[in-house]
Amino acid sequence: MVDRVAVPDSYHKNHPSKSHLSSLEMYEKMYNESIQDPDRFWAKMAKELLHWDRSFQTVRTGGFEHGNVAWFVEGQLNACYNCVDRHAFANPKKVGLRRATILTKIASNYL
User: Fold this and answer.
1) How far apart are the first and last CA of the chain?
2) Distance (Å) of CA 58 to CA 11, 86, 111
3) Other beta carbons less than 10 A from residue 72's beta carbon
4) Average pLDDT of the chain to the nearest whole number
5) Does residue 11 belong to any structural domain of this protein?
6) pLDDT at 41
7) What Cα–Cα distance (Å) separates residue 105 from each residue in 34, 55, 96?
8) Is 69 inside a domain boundary?
9) Low-confidence ranges of the chain (pLDDT < 50)
């Protein structure tokens, strides 16, 4: 059994945006779903949280014990779009990358 620690209330009050999980109970529910039926759980998460150019049919094949595990085999996605572009389209005025150097003391923001 893994020890679990509740997220302090101060985190939720000071967090710049809404947390993905609203409570320890929600976390425990999701955790139990992921253990009881991992393929169903990860299929749901992948469909909800990622943009797919081509949808997957198979969630997982193979296994770690033989080193032949593969996830979302038929699916195709663009990692850059999922990590950067879709957020830039949703929040075009929000800073996407901030670069600062100690030597020149110049900071640059990239939208």
Assistant:
1) 43
2) 37, 25, 36
3) 20
4) 84
5) no
6) 97
7) 46, 46, 20
8) yes
9) none
